[in-house]
C-alpha cells in the first residue's frame, strides 16, 4: 500500500536549517555494542558478588547504558513509525525483538539450565518435573514480561542465585514504548508538528519527577519502571521530529554533552530524564564522527550481546571464574557472549528481518530495525 500524504513524518525540506542532516553512514551499531558491553560490565559486579559497581548520580553504568539504548531507540523507532502504516510498523517491531527473545528463552532451558542442573544434582533426573519447571519458565515469560527468572532451582551455586537473565526485563518496557509511539502516530497532528511529542515528553518527565507523590495511586513497580524509561524514549522521539529543522553540528554536540552531564549531576533523580533529548543529540552527532569497522556497520550484534551476556556470566560464575577477579571474569564473558551474539544475528535476527522484507513489508531494511533494550 502506498503511504498517505498525512503519514509524512516531517515537512518537505531539502535539509535542516542548522547543521548537517543525519545519514546512515554512522556508527550507531558500534555505540549500541559498547552500551551492551557497559551492561555486561555493570552486571559483572552483581554476578561476581561485588556489589553495584561504579555509579553516576545513584545509577550504575548498566542503568545509564539502558537509558542510552532507549534514547537511540526513541529516535529510530519514531522514524520507522512515521514512515509506515501501523500494521507494517508493528510487524517490524515484533520481527526485530521477539524471535531472538524466544530463542534466548529456549537456549536457556535447553543449554544453560541443564548444565547448571547437572552440576548441582549430578544428572538430569527431575529436571523437567521440579516446581520451577523449564516449561514454566518458557510460558511465564513468553510475552516479554519477565515473571520467572530461575529454571528448576538453577542457578544455585553462584553469588547471584536464582536468576538466568536479569537483562531481559527491559524488553517489555521497550515494547510498551513501541506501542506508545505507534498510538501517537495515528494522529495527524503528531505527524505534522513536533509540539505534541514535546508535550508528551514534558508530561513524562513531570510524572517521573513527581513519582513519589503519585505512588499511592500508581504504586505498581511496572508503572514506576515505565515512568523511569519512557522519558528517555520520548526524548529521542522529540529529536527525530525536530530533525527537519535542527541538524547535527560539532558545537551543538559538545554543548549537548556538557548540558546533559550538568543536568545529571546537579538535578537529583530526574535530571537524566530531562536531559534525554540532549543525550540523543550527542549520541547521534558522535555516531557521525566515531569511526567504525564496516563489518560492525553491516552486522548489528548488540541485541544478541545484550540478551546473552547475563547467562554466560552465570555459567562462568558456576565455573568459579569470578574468583579470579572482575577483569578476567568480564573478559571471559565478553568472549563467550560475542560468539552467541554473532550466532543470534546470523541464524535468527537477520534471517527473520530478511523474511519480513521478502514477504512484502514495504519500507523495511535491516538498518531501519535497530537492535534495542
Quick description:
With 373 residues, this protein is mainly α. The chain has helices at 28-47, 61-81, 86-121, 134-141, 169-184, 188-192, 195-209, 211-214, 221-242, 250-266, 271-274, 276-289, 294-298, 302-318, 326-358; strands spanning 55-56, 59-60. The model is unreliable at 1-12 and 361-373 (pLDDT under 50).
Describe what this molecule looks like in 3D.
The chain is mainly α. Helix content is 64%, strand content 1%. The protein has 15 helices and two strands. A two-stranded antiparallel sheet has the order 1-2. Helix 2 runs parallel beside helix 5. The longest helix has 36 residues. It is globular and about 65 Å long.
Q: Which features does this protein show?
A:
single chain; 373 residues; 64% helix; disordered N terminus
What is the element layout, followed by pairings?
Layout: H1 28-47, E1 55-56, E2 59-60, H2 61-81, H3 86-121, H4 134-141, H5 169-184, H6 188-192, H7 195-209, H8 211-214, H9 221-242, H10 250-266, H11 271-274, H12 276-289, H13 294-298, H14 302-318, H15 326-358
Antiparallel strand pairs: 1-2
Amino acid at each position: 500500500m502506498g503511504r498517505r500524504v498525512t503519514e509524512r513524518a516531517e515537512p518537505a525540506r531539502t535539509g535542516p536549517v542548522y547543521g548537517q542532516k543525519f545519514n546512515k553512514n554512522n556508527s550507531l551499531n558500534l555505540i549500541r555494542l559498547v552500551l551492551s558491553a557497559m551492561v555486561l560490565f555493570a552486571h559483572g559486579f552483581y554476578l561476581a558478588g561485588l556489589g553495584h559497581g561504579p555509579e553516576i548520580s545513584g545509577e550504575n553504568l548498566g542503568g545509564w547504558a539502558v537509558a542510552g539504548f532507549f534514547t537511540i531507540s526513541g529516535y529510530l523507532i519514531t522514524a520507522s513509525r512515521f514512515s509506515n502504516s501501523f500494521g507494517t510498523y508493528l510487524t517490524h517491531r515484533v520481527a526485530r525483538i521477539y524471535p531472538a527473545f524466544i530463542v534466548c528463552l529456549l537456549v536457556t532451558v535447553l543449554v544453560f539450565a541443564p548444565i547448571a542442573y547437572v552440576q548441582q544434582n549430578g544428572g538430569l533426573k527431575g529436571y523437567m518435573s521440579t516446581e520451577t519447571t523449564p516449561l514454566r519458565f518458557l510460558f511465564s515469560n513468553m510475552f516479554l514480561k519477565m515473571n520467572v527468572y530461575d529454571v528448576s532451582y538453577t542457578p544455585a551455586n553462584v553469588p547471584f542465585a536464582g536468576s538466568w537473565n536479569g537483562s531481559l526485563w527491559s524488553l517489555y518496557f521497550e515494547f510498551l514504548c513501541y506501542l506508545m509511539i505507534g498510538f501517537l502516530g495515528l494522529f495527524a497532528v503528531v505527524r505534522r508538528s513536533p509540539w505534541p511529542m514535546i508535550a508528551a515528553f514534558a508530561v513524562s518527565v513531570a510524572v517521573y519527577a513527581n513519582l513519589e507523590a503519585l505512588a499511592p495511586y500508581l504504586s505498581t513497580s511496572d508503572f514506576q519502571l515505565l515512568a523511569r524509561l519512557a522519558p528517555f524514549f520520548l526524548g529521542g522521539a522529540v529529536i527525530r521530529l525536530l530533525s527537519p529543522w535542527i541538524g547535527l553540528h560539532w558545537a551543538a554536540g559538545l554543548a549537548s554533552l556538557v548540558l546533559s552531564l550538568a543536568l545529571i549531576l546537579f538535578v537529583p533523580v530526574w535530571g537524566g530524564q530531562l536531559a534525554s533529548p540532549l543525550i540523543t543529540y550527542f549520541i547521534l552527532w558522535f555516531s557521525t564522527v566515531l569511526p567504525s569497522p564496516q563489518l560492525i556497520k553491516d552486522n548489528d550484534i548488540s541485541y544478541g550481546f545484550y540478551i546473552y551476556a547475563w547467562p554466560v556470566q552465570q555459567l562462568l560464575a558456576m565455573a568459579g571464574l569470578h574468583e579470579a577477579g572482575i577483569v578476567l571474569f568480564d573478559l571471559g564473558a565478553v568472549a563467550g557472549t560475542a560468539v552467541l551474539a554473532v550466532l543470534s544475528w546470523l541464524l535468527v535476527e537477520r534471517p527473520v528481518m530478511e523474511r519480513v522484507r521478502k514477504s512484502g513489508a514495504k519500507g523495511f531494511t535491516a538498518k531501519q530495525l535497530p537492535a534495542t533494550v
